[in-house]
Amino acid sequence: MTAPDHSRFPPAPTWLEINLGAVRRNTAAVLRHTGQPLMAVVKADAYGLGAAAISRAALEAGAAWLAVARCSEGLELRRAGIQAPILVFGMAVPAEVDAALANNLTLTLYNRESADLIAQRAAALGLTARVHLKVDTGFGRMGALPDQALDLAGYAQCLGGIQLDGLYSHLAMADEAPDHPLTRQQIERFTGVLAALRAAGHDPRWVHLSNSAAAFLLPEAHFNLVRTGSALIGLLPAYFLPLPAELERAVTWKALIADTKALPGGWAVGYGQTERPEPGEAIGVLSVGYGDGFRRAPGNVVLVHGRRIPVIGRVSSDLTTLRLPPGFPPAREAVLIGRQGQEAIYAEELAKRWGCSQSAVLSGISPRVPRVYLEE
User: Fold this and answer.
1) Which of 16, 200, 208, 373 has its CA 20 to 30 A from that of 48?
2) Could you confirm whether 43 is annotated as catalytic?
3) At 325, which CATH number?
4) pLDDT tens string 237-254
5) Which is catalytic among the residues 47, 271, 290, 373?
6) Chain segment 38-75, per-residue pLDDT in tens
7) How far apart, in Å, are the Cα atoms of 189 and each of 109, 133, 152, 180?
8) pLDDT category, 5, cuts 50, 70, 90?
9) Residue 328's pLDDT is what?
10) Coil, helix or strand at residue 209
């Protein structure tokens, strides 16, 4: 009896394949399209794909900056040997600020309390802290309101130890409706704050407002630095438009089929026994579940042999059951996200089915699912 060739098996029952070549080409495409320096947004571990690997690919293709949500994320990139400028979008608690400043992370200035903390710790360390001032131009989240921004910049300058290196805000509606009146209002408010700062003698070097949608649809929002995250990994920059021709999908999610069998008459499938196959109908047992990030939701499908195969019964923590058509040939693997043959399932489809965003689909894939990096 010949022993099976285990070298042909993937690293786990379910895994992600991430095409770094596509990330590099997408980065280059955004740079060509905008003509401005690029800040690659790699928060939440690059939406679950691995911040260090995605950061390196984007930087190799010409990105000038990286952006993260938390100080801990920026420090992880520094420990990985990445020395590019890194902006931290979110708040920094006192326990984090010293490490952030010592590792040359750029922090966000958004209210007087953040200014006080940064200035105190910079003085204690004998450092000058570079900050980007965040303005809330209509998103309703963190940031100084437009009529408070000039006062905050002056207050921070008087404290000492703070260098205003950038100004930014975030667009609320560009990925859903770029012609929404709020988008125009936000650009006008942001431009007004920038003019007021410059008139008062503040001259932030980096000015950024665009997200991935605005990078492709709103050139007036580019200023001199463009932020993109989803576009670099091949997600839709705007929900209402197909993927721009310049961009490539970078992520495929696969899982192995652990078992295939015909159930006896009267048997049902899964927790709650919600569905009952026809007598003799074949089912496939897929090695992935909600513990991996494949959510329990009506209408789930996967690709097998290039065909859409429906999920039957409830997705469990580690396994998912498929309804196989009569005479369906044996198969070894299924695709949950990506292309197989002439069919494709992409993150935007799952986002619509699961009631979340594209980035939430990827960010929700468990760390126990191995990330496999490919060049093509």
Assistant:
1) 208
2) yes
3) 2.40.37.10
4) 998 889 999 999 999 999
5) 271
6) 999 999 999 999 999 999 999 999 999 999 999 999 99
7) 18, 14, 16, 15
8) low
9) 87
10) coil
> In 3D, which of 245, 248, 200, 198 has the Cα closest to residue 223?
198
Place of tokens 């750029």: 106
Q: What is the 3-state secondary structure (H, E, C) of 288-353?
A: CCHHHCCCCCCCCEEEECCEEEEECCCCCCCCEEEECCCCCCCCCEEEEEEEECCEEECHHHHHHH
What percentage of the chain exceeds 90 in pLDDT?
87
Q: Do 212 and 305 fall within a single domain?
A: no
Are 255 and 229 members of one domain? no
User: Distance between CA 270 and CA 253 in Å, rounded?
Assistant: 23
Amino acid letter at 280? Answer: G
Q: Are 311 and 321 in contact (CB under 8 A)?
A: yes
b/e string for 340-366 if b means 16 or more Cβ within 10 A? beebbbbbbebbebbebbbbbbbbbbe
Residue 357 included in any domain: no
- In which element (H, E) is residue 57 found? helix 51-60
Distance CA 358, CA 348 (A): 5
Domain that holds residue 93: 20-233
Of these residues, 43, 47, 254, 346, which one is catalytic?
A: 43
In this structure, the answer to whether residues 182 and 278 fall within a common structural domain is: no
pTM: 0.94
- From 202, 233, 264, the end of a domain falls on 233
Structure tokens at 167: 């100004």
Identify any residues that bridge with 260 across adjacent strands, giving them in sequence order.
284
d(CA 330, CA 294): 23
239 assigned to active site: no
